[in-house]
Amino acid sequence: MNNSYYYKAINIGIVEENVVLRRWYEQNGAVHVGTKKFDFFPFTCGYMRKEI
Fold first, then answer.
1. How many CB atoms lie within 10 A of CB 48?
2. Per-residue CA distances from 14 to 19, 27, 45, 46 (Å)
3. Mean of the per-residue pLDDT values for the chain?
């Protein structure tokens, strides 16, 4: 099987308010791609993506 057809990345969900964690992921190559606020969580969900 030829793996060149597969897009290799991971999607990461974090607590957006956790700035230390977000910066760590950014320093290790992840890119912030958005946020979403859910009524049932007391925090904002942050989404990041890392190519692997």
1. 19
2. 10, 15, 6, 5
3. 93
CA distance 8 to 13: 17
| Rounded mean pLDDT, 5-24 | 94
Interacting residues of 52 by C-beta distance below 8 A, sequence separation 6+: 8, 9, 10
Question: Whose CA is closest to 13, among 39, 28, 34, 41?
Answer: 34
Q: Give exposure, 14-44, as e/b (b: 16+ Cβ within 10 Å).
A: bebeeeeebeebeeeebeeeeeeeeeeeeee
Full-model pTM: 0.82
